[in-house]
Structures are given as structure tokens and as C-alpha cells.
Amino acid sequence: MTNDHRSRLRFSLAGAGIFALCGALLILHARSGAAAPEPAPSSATNEAPPLPATVDLSADALANFNLHVAKAELRPGVHTITATGTIGFDARRLAQLSSPSRARIIAVDVAAGDHVHAGQRLVALDEFDLDDVNSQAAGAQAAVADAKAALDEAEAALERGKELLATGGLAQSELDRRRAQAANAQAMLDTREAELRKWRGMQQRLMPIRAANPRGSETATLARLSPADSRGALVAPFDGVINAVGAAAGDIVDTSVPIVTLADLSTMWLQANVPERDAAAVRPGQTAIVTLDAYPGRRFDARVIDVADQTDPGTGTVAVRCALPNSDGALRANMFATVDIEAPLGHDTVLVPDAALQDVNGKTAIFIPLGNGRFKWQAVRTGYAAQGMTEIPEGLSAGTPVVSDGSYWLKAALMKDAIPDEG
Question: Is the pLDDT of residue 346 over 80?
């Protein structure tokens, strides 16, 4: 093959290669274009349509929904603080009765759990000191009688002396002596009466405790006592329940041994543990509502009577004591309870019924009637809640009518109207 033929062959092969390379590139470009993803649809197409500003109800729907309308009220603001605690005895009406002196127990008339009345004998005692005190009191009584007789005699002699002195039948010196005797007799009577008061006071400390009447003063009439009670007894100072009996008949006891513990259950205490962030708002005299697992659905009215002046470092709570009337005896010591304490905010606030509030697209809203079956929904900001009412610090004026019961149906109608018609 000549050189000229060889040159023409090389040029032909080179041209065919270039042509094939260009074709391959064109094919790759076409394939890459076909595999390219379609542009994403606009996010605006996924957005939910805006909610209508109002809900329109037909007359039939309005009748079926049975809506109730209430006005937003302006009241003193109250913050409800919720805490847990336990029921206990009223420490001011819890009596631990012991013998007023060293004694032997003759009889124990009650047992734990017994209900007793003021003046009822609980324990009969043979007090070792009482016999001696009774003897001393009797002697002091006799001494007072002798002193009174001596004083009467001295005063009579003094009066006769005054009459004789007027007629010249008695010297002035004798009258002065008789006057001195009368003064000494009076002083002796005063001394004897003081001794008698001392022994009678000791008798009172050793004899049965007198019961207090409802007005708080003592009454001299006790329950009928047996002859043994003249030697000593423990008597109930008020109506209550025997919580514990710590001794038995035949025991020798002294003043340090509690024989009977008596609790007045007419009022109980609730010891609640309030978080320290809320404790500053709690004050004695505030009202509280107490609920117990033992009585579902029942509420007990209480009153705050004390707030501790220190925080428990272990729990971060402050002890708050509430008093609960217990007229029917339903409350028992160590019951677990929940308390809602109503702490005033110090200013008036707008309140609506809890039933008026609905969640509309993540916002708290109320429905305002416009008339003719039309209702406007309005977003509001809520605050504290108490006794079925919720504070609305923003978004609503006092006196504005709002739908309370049945507002859920308005929410359902509103959300239905916001769904586009697919037909």
C-alpha cells in the first residue's frame, strides 16, 4: 500500500471515531435530561385555607345545638393553688390526760375509739396525795371557823367598850386594848382563809377536771360520779373520741404518764405542702376547697390558719395548715387529701366559664353571638382558673356575651366550613 493510501485510511478512521464520540455524548445528554426531577410544587398549595371569621347556623341547627350564652364577668382575680396533704387532729383540742399526782388506777371506763361527752368519767384514781390534802383542807376550814368566832367576840367587846367609855365606866387604855384584839382577830381570820384557799386549790388540782360548757366557762355540774371519784378521777374536758389509753387498772402512775388521749373531732387540721413559688401568695384567712379519695365528688370547705415561716429543703415546699369543720365525723386522721387554696391576685379580672373555651388551630378561642344564627370566633389569652371560671387577661371585655355550653358544636361547624368542597 502506498503512503498516499495509508494517509487517506488514517483520516477516514479518525473521522469515524469523532462521529461516534459525538453521537454518544448526544445520547448521554438526552438521558440525563429525561432523568432530571420535576420542580417541587409550591408550598402555597399545601397551606390550609384560612378559617372563616364567623359560623352561620340554620334555625334547625341552632335549635339542635342547644347553645347557652353567658356574659364575661368582672370579678376580683383569684389564683387557685393546688397542693396535697394529710388530715390530722386539731392540736388545740387534743388532750393528754394524766394523774395530777402519784396514784393507783382503780378503773378505766373507756377504750380507744369510744365517743365521750364533756364531764364523763374516764378513769377512777386512788391518789396518794389527795387524802392528805382533804385532811388539810378540813383542818383549814375548822381554823377559819374558829378565827371567825374569835373575831366576832373581839368586835363585840370593842363595841361594849365604846359604850362604857361614853358613860365613864371604862378607861381609854382598855378600849385601845380591845381595839387591838379585834385587829389581831381580823388578821388571824385573813391568815386562816388564805390557808384554806391554798388547800382548796390543791383539792381542785387533784379532783376531777371540770368540763367546759359551749361558751367556754366552767360548769360546776359534772356527770354523776361513784364514791371512788371522791378520791380522784379523770373526766372528759370536752366532747370527743378516745384516741389512746396508756394504762390499766392496778397500774401505779405519776404526773408524767399520759393515761388517756382525747381528741375533739368537730374540727380537723389539714397539713398541706405548698410549692415555695406559690407560698408567698398564701395568707391566713383565705378559703380553700378540700377533696379526698375516700369521698369522690364531695368537697369540704376549709380555711387557712397558718403558713410556716420556713421551707423544707428536701421538698422545696412550705407547710400550710387549714382548719376543716367535721360536723358529721367523716374526716379521720391520716387521710390523704388535695386542697385548692384561693389566693387573691389583688386586682379585678375578666372571667368566662371554662366551657366557653375551645382550641381552634392551636389557639384558645371563644365564640361571640352576633345574632340571626351568626357567631364570631375570637382568639384570647387565658390566665388562672378557679371554680369553673377562667381569667381572660387579654382579648375580651367585661360584659361581652360568649357561648358557654355548646361551644364545641360551633367549633365543629367552624372546622367543617374550613374543609374545601371536593365535589
Answer: no
